Amino acid sequence: MPASQLATGKQPDVADWFYTPEWEVAAVPVGGDGPGETCLVFEDELGWGQRLAALLRQHGLLVTAQRLAVLGAVSELPHATADAIADAVRGDIGAISRQTVYDVLGVLVAKGIVRRIEPAGSPARYERRVGDNHHHLICRTCGRLDDVDCATGEAPCLIPVDDRDFVIDEAEVNYWGTCPDCLAVTRSHHRPTAPRS
User: Pairing relation of β-strands 135-139 and 174-177?
Assistant: First the structure.
């Protein structure tokens, strides 16, 4: 039985914001965004659910079950695709259309709450780490994507030979290679065999 059903005694619906298994300490009633609305946020001892709601409000967004669930999924699954986020959200709040997930992600990206990453040959990925000029390591074999801090620490970190009168404020850097796990598999398949006597 989902935690939202346990906490409210009914099937999950829009009045139940979201549930993530790690956040099962307490159900805290908080004010909704509409007149007379009250919602339940499933909290952990760190107040994560209320912080996500406050972040949405801080950016001028209404707090909805869908927005909280998508933002929670992006926070829990850094570098996830929209499809993976949709699957996680369905596990938290039940039915949600793929289009709604894309719409919410679009709003979160536009507000600067979430960053969209588009590695070549891969579907877009989403992350909560924004505004710090970090870059990414991408494995050519399995698609693993890891954050890496900027080598210079300051944007744009790369200066073109000719900026053609652009005012450059950012350089998107992706380092491509092979991750340690894929490297280990490759090396294990190419080990020389001992000659038979």
Answer: parallel
Residues 138, 69 share a domain: no
Domain boundary residue among 68, 89, 117?
117
Q: What are phi and psi of 95, to 5 degrees?
A: -65, 135
Residue 20 has pLDDT above 90, yes or no: no
Q: Calculate the alpha carbon distances from 105 to 44, 102, 125, 133 in Å.
A: 24, 5, 10, 20
Q: Is residue 125 part of a domain?
A: no
Tens-place pLDDT, residues 113-146: 999 999 988 899 999 999 888 899 999 999 999 9
**Model-wide pTM > 0.85:** no
Do 103 and 176 fall into the same domain?
no
Contact in structure between 82 and 126 (CB atoms under 8 Å): yes
pLDDT-based confidence at residue 173 (cuts at 50, 70, 90): confident
pLDDT at 4: 41
CA atoms within 13 A on the CB side of 42: 25
Helix axes 48-58, 65-76, angle to 10 degrees: 110
Dig out the tokens for 77 from the structure.
Answer: 């699954």
Tell whether 80 and 151 lie within a shared domain.
no
